Amino acid sequence: MSDGPASEGTTDEQPGAGAKGAQVTGARSAPAPELPRRAFARGVRLASLPAGFAGRTAIGLGKRLGGASAEAVAAEMQARTAEQLFAVLGQLKGGAMKVGQAMSIFEAALPEDVAGPYRAMLTRLQDSAPPLPAATVHAVLARELGPGWRSSFTSFDDTPVAAASIGQVHRGTWADGRRVAVKVQYPGAAEALVADITQVSRVARLTGGWIPGVELGPILAEMRERLVEELDYTVEAASQRAFADAFRGDEDFVVPDVVASTERVIVSEWLDGEPLSTLIAGGTQEQRDVASRRYLEFLLLGPAEVGLLHADPHPGNFRLTPDGRFGILDFGAVKRLPDGMPPAVGRLLGVALSDDADGVVTGLREEGFIKRSIELDGRQLLDYVSPFLRPVLTETFTFDRAWLRELFGHINDVRTPTWAVGLRLNLPREYVLIHRVWLGGLGVLCQLGGTVACIDVLEDHLPGFADA
To answer: Across-strand partners of 180?
Structure first.
């Protein structure tokens, strides 16, 4: 079993700080190069992806002319492209890295001949990124915990156990003997993330007019607020404490306690377990089934029990512990739902399952998913969403890549009359993170390949669903 708590986007561990006579293990290294923060510099890095592909295509053509087989050339090009994708997104970290991590969740939706060569690299993006040197980590710890930060630990491992978009995690032992995970934010991560958000916003403003049913302003504002919030680890620590208190002593779920926190460092108790990313690669069917059910339950229990929706569904943030519980890590991205999941979600799902086309249109319009100026045919709308309803139309449902590919093919097939429906639907600001979590959650479930009694889970935990 791999052990450790995760913190940041897709990491496998959690944070820690403080104790006398601390020992630091691991070799010191030269200061790290500064994260590429300027928009121009980051833009050049991102531009290297298509440019690199063009260069490899030219080389591949040359090899073909030289007699190499098409299969050998294609395999080499795909391998090199995958490696560059990991290297560029990993080095940039920040928002660009988060894009790569989001891509990693949806590799399950790609055709097998396309996804195969990239799967290993995309999976690496779920759990790691090129780490910072020890000297840089020490400087952050000294700034955040004080020049005597080593006295807070009896041991501290300079080699990170996990690294992701805005921070990396180290293993340590706290002064009182507790094993801890120490999450350290990358210097310059704030500037890099803001630069990436700005770049995305500029592109979105240019394309927004092409999508008649969507108001992009509120969506971008919500994304910006949540992403900037992730940069303050004191906010994350408060969310983690709320989850830990709510699930303390629970038979099925566990959240590690926060030991100490500052704006750029979090120290959490260590959590042993098998990350979902490991189960995806080689877990037993029983492990996959249990993890899938607990994963689905937790997405609903957070709003109900804590008033918070865990909004980072990456597999590295969840694990099965040795005692059989479902462990949860990384609370940087959350959606505040003090009254729980909006009842309209369960109610509208029930209306759709009852095949009430007019009721679905009316309900979506009331919630802001259909703007007043937009007219939609109720039957076409139900046809558009019907593939998404399949998990709750049977007693149990097995999530798999084939179903996810079918979903993506369905909504992207321009030859069908329902294709334009998606372009006419709006995404209200209050539903942005909910939508992102559930879409990402489907990607994770399809990677896990577990069998779940979804309708039982929804009836037990989704407000409004059982009544509808």
So the answer is: 172, 269
* 3-class secondary-structure state, position 157: strand
| CA–CA dist 447, 438 (Å, integer) | 14
- Cα four-point dihedral sign 229, 250, 397, 110: positive
Q: How far apart are CA 383 and CA 361, in angstroms?
A: 12
Q: Is residue 398 part of a domain?
A: no
Say if residues 257 and 269 touch (Cβ distance below 8 Å). yes
Q: Of 428, 439, 438, 434, nearest to 218 (Cα)?
A: 428
CA-to-CA distance for 385 and 362, rounded, in angstroms?
Answer: 15
**Of 447, 456, 466, nearest in space to 123 by CA:** 447
Q: Are strands 326-328 and 253-254 parallel, antiparallel or unpaired?
A: parallel
The domain of 45 spans: 39-127
Residue 289's φ and ψ, nearest 5 degrees, are -65, -45
Residue type, 244: A
DSSP 8-state symbol, 166: S
Q: Give the number of domains in the chain.
A: 1
Single-letter amino acid code for the residue at 79 = A
Cβ neighbors of 69 (< 8 A, separation 6 or more) are none
Phi/psi of residue 340, nearest 5 degrees: 85, -175
Residue 119 domain-assigned (yes or no): yes
Element spanning 12, H or E: none
Element spanning 74, H or E: helix 70-92
Residue 368 inside a domain? The answer is: no
Binned average pLDDT, 10 residues per bin, the chain of 468 residues: 40 37 36 45 44 41 42 47 48 47 49 52 51 89 96 96 82 97 87 65 50 55 71 94 98 98 96 94 95 97 96 90 96 92 94 94 95 91 92 95 86 78 86 87 93 96 86
Give the CA distances from residue 302 to residues 152, 373, 439, in Å, rounded to whole numbers and listed in that order.
32, 35, 17
Task: Provide the residue type at 384 as one letter.
Answer: Y
- Is the separation of the CB atoms in 145 and 152 below 8 Å? yes
For residues 266 and 15, the answer to whether their CB atoms sit within 8 Å is yes
Would residue 45 count as lying in a domain?
A: yes
pLDDT at 458: 95
The span from the CA of 169 to the CA of 211, in Å, is 40
Tokens 């990313």 belong to residue: 277
Tell me the two tokens of residue 141.
């710890």
Cβ atoms 335, 308 nearer than 8 A: yes
Q: Which of 125, 85, 82, 87 is nearest to 105 (CA)?
A: 125
Beta bridge partners of 179: 173
* CB of 166 closer than 8 Å to CB of 193: yes
